[in-house]
Structures are given as structure tokens and as C-alpha cells.
Design a protein that fits this description.
Elements (H helix, E strand, L loop, with lengths): L1 E6 L5 H10 L3 E6 L9 H4 L9 E4 L2 E4 L1 H12 L13 H23 L7 H27 L10 H11 L13 H11 L2 H10 L9
Parallel strand pairs: 1-2
Antiparallel strand pairs: 1-3, 3-4
Helix pairs in contact: 1-3, 1-6, 1-8, 4-5, 4-6, 5-7
Organism: Acidocella aquatica
Protein name: Glutathione S-transferase
């Protein structure tokens, strides 16, 4: 059985969601953040990088949500929520699956920028990051005006990968999506999924550590 090492308010909630969508058994081990919002030493001891999500499957412990999602879909779910390599939308699936990493990196860069900096290079970087997020969000909005889901007509792991930047990050100072009607409708559509609702109740940003 897969163990999900869940760090509170982190991208590890997407792995809980994936498992709920697939109906696969898992064990959840919860770690609260420290007052400075860093992961506690016990979480950092799990892996040399110890980013969230981190999972264990047998003797293998590894991080990186993109790798974890592909591993679960292909190793444990028989390809469910993935797209076959000979499917017409396979390239779309790969693109949107990996898009989440670029989107999250740009969102984090905007959140870390100092709008009052007097350092000209930092100001250039902050402007470039904001422009990049705007491009990514507009790209999402266009895509979701032509397709109900990112990889095509069916819900897939690509959707699981991208929701965090659109839902949790704005709660903590990330860019808003309110000006993007297709993205807003998409978030509402995804948020209505029973598996998503279960996962957010278990490990979402408002969830709390279950009582022992």
C-alpha cells in the first residue's frame, strides 16, 4: 500500500485526490508545518529533498508530484486517468501534465517578489515573473474555452496536477483567477467532483490533522 506523507497546506493534497479518484487504498501520515511554515525535521528526514508530496511504495521513497502521479497511474492504476501513447490527445496530456510545474514555479516567483525593491535586476525579474503568470493564465483560459478538461474531453491526471495553483495558491497571496471566466468555470466543475471533495476534506488547505 502506498503511504502519502502529507505536509499540511501543500501540493501533497493532489496525491490524496488522485488516490480518491482512482479508488486505490493508501495510508496518510500527516505532518504539520512549523510556525515559520517550514516542514518539520521529521518530514525533512524522509528524503534528501523532502518536498511535498513525498510517498513510500514498499522500500522506495520519492518526491516530485509529476513523477508520483505518473508512477501511480501507470504502476498501480493500469493507465487510468492517463492517456495512451497512441491516443490523438497524448501530446496534449503530456503538455498539460508538465505545464503545472512551470505554472507553479512562476506563481511562486511572483509571491516571492518584493514590489518595493530598489534593486533594478530584482525589479526586472519581478516584472518578468508577473508577465509570465499572466501569459500562463491566459493560455489556460483559452484552452478551457475549447475543452472541458485540459488534456481533452475527459478528466485526467493533468487536471489533478494543475488545480493547486488555481485554488490553494490564491488563498495565500498567489495571483487571482477571478478575471478568467473559463478557468473559474473549470474550477467550479472540478470542485464538484466527489473525489475532489473527499480529498480536500482529508488533506486540503482547510483540513486539520485527524485525531489519533
Amino acid at each position: 500500500m502506498i503511504t502519502i506523507y502529507h505536509l499540511g497546506v501543500s501540493q501533497s493534497d493532489r496525491i490524496v485526490w488522485l488516490m480518491e479518484e482512482l479508488g486505490l487504498p493508501y495510508q496518510l501520515e500527516w505532518f504539520d508545518r512549523m510556525p515559520n511554515m517550514f516542514a518539520p525535521p521529521e518530514y525533512k528526514a524522509l528524503h534528501p529533498v523532502a518536498t511535498a508530496p513525498t510517498i513510500r511504495d514498499g522500500g522506495k521513497v520519492f518526491c516530485e508530484s509529476l513523477a508520483i502521479v505518473e508512477y501511480i497511474v501507470n504502476r498501480h492504476a493500469g493507465g487510468r486517468l492517463g492517456v495512451a501513447v497512441d491516443a490523438p490527445n497524448y501530446a496534449d496530456y503530456l503538455y498539460w501534465l508538465s505545464f503545472s510545474n512551470s505554472l507553479m514555479a512562476s506563481v511562486m516567483a511572483v509571491m516571492a517578489s518584493d514590489p518595493n525593491t530598489t534593486d533594478p535586476m530584482r525589479a526586472i525579474f519581478a516584472k518578468a515573473s508577473a508577465d509570465r503568470v499572466a501569459l500562463y493564465f491566459n493560455h489556460l483560459n483559452l484552452r478551457l474555452g475549447e475543452s472541458d478538461y485540459l488534456a481533452g474531453p475527459e478528466f485526467s491526471a493533468a487536471d489533478v496536477q494543475n488545480m493547486f495553483a488555481l485554488t490553494t495558491m490564491p488563498k495565500f497571496g498567489g495571483p487571482s483567477i477571478s478575471h478568467l471566466p473559463n478557468v473559474v468555470a473549470y474550477v467550479e466543475r472540478i470542485s464538484a467532483r466527489p473525489a475532489y471533495q473527499r480529498a480536500m476534506a482529508i488533506a486540503g488547505p482547510e483540513a486539520v490533522r485527524p485525531e489519533a
